[in-house]
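Notes from hallway chat w/ T.B., transcribed later so I don't forget. T.B. wanted the structure written out for a chain they're using in a teaching module, and asked if we could keep both sequence and structure tokens in one place. Agreed to drop them here.
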Amino acid sequence: MNLYARLALRFAVYHRALLTAVLCTMLVLSAFAGALAIFDRSAREAVATSVRADSGGKRYALQVLTPGPVAGLLAADPALHPVWDDDGSVTVGGRQSPASVRLLRDPLPVGVLTQGAFPARDDEATISTHLAGLLGVSVGDTVTVSASGPSREVRVSGITSRPEDRSYRGVVLLGAGLPAGDADLWLTDRRPFSDPTLEPLLQRGDLAARTTSILAQDRAAGFQSALLSTTRQVSRVVVVLGAVMALLLLVVTSRATRREVAALTAVGIRESRARLLPIAMAVLAIVGGAVLGAALALVVLSRAASGVAGLVGQEWSGVVVPWSSLSAVLAVVVAGAAVGVSVAVWGRRYRPRYGPSWRSRPRLAISLTALGLACMLLPFVDVLPVEAAVPGAVLLALTVPAAMVPISTARAAPASRRLVLALTTPFALAGALTSLLALGTAYYSAYITHAGIASVRSSPAVQPTGSYLVYNVPAPAGEALRDEYRRLGGSRTATYQLPVEDTHTLRVSGERAVGCMRASGGNDPMDHLSCLPKDTSSPVNIVALSSALGDGEARADPGLIEGDRVGLIDFDLDTSAVKSLETVPATGDETLGGNMPGLVVAPDSDIAKRYGLRASDAVLVALLDFGTLDEAAQARFRATVARLAATGQTSELVGQKTPELAVGVWTAAAGAAAVCLLWVSVGTVISTSQLRQRAMYAAAGAGRRHRRLLAARLMAPPFAGFLLTGVIAICAAWISGVHDGSPFGWWWMLPSLAGMAAVLVVGGHYARPVRPPS
């Protein structure tokens, strides 16, 4: 080992704490960025795999655009394989579940097979993993498949998975003898664009063709989900932040090792080689941390592939390594390190001057802060567009820590003010950069949560969330359904009697709609769209009866109530002409509206008597907490409905999905984790680089109280930056929002709170007594 190598080894041992902190900082950033890249690529590959598997391994997919003789021409060609898709159900024993039914004329390997074999005969079928678990089915069992045609009993020959959707309920079976003209899709390995039979059909527009590999790529590229939207927003910030942090860490390391460089130069080592030693070791730590972070992300995600896939509702057998993305992350970090080398070399010759030019820097920070405030306030008076709020927030997040530096050092003793100022500056710079990450994630979390809640408010649900409705059920069957539902664990039910409409067709709407119809003399409420209620999914709805109400009680959809009243429209059954219009008082019921009745009255009420409403033999059974049952109980109840109310119509809304809310939660959580880990790592690097100054401060007689006071002064700028970042983020989100009164949630506070907690951790570490390095 030559002299320079031995010196490098000794240097690494001597500054092991500093280099370890540098390595860990880059490891955290690289692991975070690498995990996001791997996650994104694996999720998109799952979509592409599903598309290829649904195509049965065939290279081309065809779809008929002009029905007629084209379908017969395709059916006569044995190289073309028709596919029919339908909605149906699968029943086994006492359980039933809705399912997507795919019928094939020819045996094709459709789906990703996990057990058994693909169907080879008409009495065989494959079912999806989720459906098999829901019904308790395994290979060899017999199930009943119902779709548009007659029900069929088939043997389960295999179980398949759908990587893009782990909750997919599907069944694939052979359907020989089905009319080829009704096929939804045609699959083939023959190139249609040069085929003498198919090419003319494509040119005339009778047929459309896509290459399944290109279709898979397009579907994967366009795949959207709540969590993936978050990863794309955060990953770009993390990569850029990694490059900036690499630059900062190199500069900090270089300035912390000036004494060693001077000592090496004094013993005869060339100055250029002496300067290169700490820079080279820091670059190795940065690159090594980046590589180890990407490797750590790959190992962790590989071992937890199934659980991670569940975050986006997918099912992975493993993860896909995005080598190009990981290489790009490493290249950006190396580029930041290269810039840092240049800055570090220049910084060797730079000596800060604390004269008038230095004192002017706080003024610059205060001026930039004022500019940022102007960008956020001027949209209120229409001087600037609302989009200016985001650049203003970024400017504030970057300048607040710098503006806090003179405030935190104002009361320091004159003899130590320069020392405190020099020690505070790197913490303020790192705080500004990390606050930018906290601002971005907090702002996006608040904004997207606000948008999601506003979207839900502006689009009322068609029925209560988590409910299951059964229409036109005979009264005895309705009672049996309620008993079975309670036996399975349900509790909240409602039964409404549907009235006989032999002379009247009574409908309920808003008071204003009735007024507009009365003023115009029209017969169709849809001619007065501007007068119809806007806060309901059914502005004109049916009237039902309920024996649970008192004679003078009327309950209505809250979206129809205007001034405690609703409007009644009585149509003639034969001519559809309006016979009468009136308004009646009613109280709101949140469960009504949409697929539920718009108004419910008692059978003996004045409204029922006035309009001749009498109960029919059919009822509407509403199971309001159906979503609280487990999936097995839900499957059993659906089978019960199929048995007791075979002709009844059903409507189900187990969960109203609001992906924006999930995006907000994931963005805030990811931002909080990144901010906390990043600041602890960077703060440790800076604290370690100032080890000698801290030891000198203690040797000068600084006790425990003075060390804590110094740590408080140094941590004040980044702490204030994180504190104000949360306020800035929510203000920017409010300015950019829709201003309809929708809340912003509280998850947006997590990044700022995590940053403040990390600052306290680093401050506690900084206040500990230290010994000078020997």
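Follow-up for T.B.: The first strand starts at residue 60 and ends at 64. Might be a good example for the class.
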